Amino acid sequence: MTRVFVLTNNKGGCGKTTSAANIALGLSGVLRKMGAPNHRVLLVDTDSQCHATLVTTGRNDFGQDDSLYAVLMAPRDQAPAVMAKVIVQSTWDSDLHVLPASPLLEGAERELMSTAGAPYRLADPLSHLANHYAAILIDTRPSFSLMTEMGLIAATDAIVPVEPRYLETVGLMNVMHKIATIREGWRVPHLRVSGILVTKMDTRVRGHKYLLGELREHEVLGRLLCGVIPANEAVSYAHRQHQSIFQYDYHAPAGVAYLKLVGTLMKRSLQAGA
Ligand SMILES: Nc1ncnc2c1ncn2[C@@H]1O[C@H](COP(=O)(O)OP(=O)(O)OP(=O)(O)O)[C@@H](O)[C@H]1O
Ligand SMILES: [Mg+2]
C-alpha cells in the first residue's frame, strides 16, 4: 500500500509546504539511489494559496480545468481520469509529480459543502492512482477546513510540523485531537499521526531549546517526534528561486535535516509493515 503523508497544522507558517515539497523530493532521490524500481513521488497541493505548486512548478496560474479544482468538480466516475490528466511534472525532478492547486479551491469548499460524499472527493480518485507512486505527500492549508479534511481522509500518515514556541506547542494537542476526530468521524482507520516535526529550530534561542526539551520528555508527543529542522535562511532563498533546498545548497543545514527525516520516515514505514 502506498504511504500517503499529509502535512497538517492549522497554525500558519509552521513549515507545512516547505516540508511536504522537500520530503517528496528527498524520498524520490533516496529511493532512486537505493535502486528502487519505482521512485516516482506525487505532491498534492490542497491549499488555495498554491505555494507548493508555485515552488515546485514555477507556476501558480493553474485553474478550472487543469488543477485539483477540476478533480473535485468532476463526476465521481470521471474523477480518476481527470486527476491523471491534471498531474504535471515538477521542474525540480521528472520523478516528482504535482497535482496543482488553484485559488479556485477557496470557492470549491463552499460549492461542495452540501454535496454528499464531498470529503472523499480527493481520497477516491487518488486511490486509483496511488499504485503508480512510491509515496504521496499532501500539503494542506492552515485551517481544518473541508480541503484539509479531504487531505486527512486520503492519508495514511499525518506529520505535524510545529515551531518551537509556547503557543504553537500548546496547540499541538488540539491538532492531535482533530486528527483523531477525523479518523473516527469519517471512518478512516488507516490514518495515524506518524510524526511531529519541529521546524525553524534555533539552538541559540533559549526558549526553543527549552520547548524542544519539554516535547522530548512529553509522554505522548515525545514518542512522535520524528525530526528537527533548523532555522535556515537558505529555505527562503530556495523558495524565491523555485528550487528545492537540496538544489539551492546541498549542504544547507535544513536540507541535511530533511534528508535525515526522510531516512527516519522510511525506517518507520518499514517498521509499520509498509
Ligand atoms: N527551516 C526554515 N528556516 C527558515 N525559514 C523557514 C524554514 N521553513 C520554512 N521557512 C519559511 O517560513 C515561511 C513559512 O513556511 P511554509 O510556507 O513552508 O509554512 P506553511 O506552514 O506551509 O505556511 P501556511 O500555513 O501559510 O501554508 C516561509 O517564508 C518559509 O520560507
Ligand atoms: Mg503552506
Q: Looking across the biggest beta sheet, what order are the strands in?
A: 3-4-2-5-1-6-7-8
Structural class of the secondary elements? alpha/beta
> Count of DSSP helices?
14
Low-confidence stretches: none
Share of residues in strands: 15-25%
Most strands sheet: 8 strands, mixed
CATH superfamily: P-loop containing nucleotide triphosphate hydrolases
Strand elements, count: 8
Q: Choose one word for the global shape.
A: globular
Q: Briefly, what CATH class? A: Alpha Beta
| Total individual domains | 1
List the ions, cofactors and other small molecules found in this model. adenosine-5'-triphosphate, magnesium ion
The CA-CA distance between the termini, in Å, is 7 Å
CATH architecture, please?
3-Layer(aba) Sandwich
CATH topology: Rossmann fold
Helix share bin: 40-55%
Key terms for this structure?
274 residues, alpha/beta, Rossmann fold, 8-stranded mixed sheet, 8 strands, binds magnesium ion
Please provide a written account of the structure:
The protein is of the alpha/beta class and 274 residues long. It has one domain (3-271): 3-Layer(aba) Sandwich (Rossmann fold). It has helices spanning 16-33, 51-57, 68-73, 79-86, 105-112, 123-129, 146-153, 166-170, 172-185, 206-217, 221-224, 234-240, 245-248, 253-271; strands at 3-7, 41-45, 88-89, 96-99, 135-139, 157-162, 192-201, 225-230. Helix 4 (79-86) crosses helix 6. The longest helix has 19 residues, at 253-271. It is globular, with a radius of gyration of 17 Å. The model has no long low-confidence stretch (mean pLDDT 95). Bound molecules: adenosine-5'-triphosphate and magnesium ion.
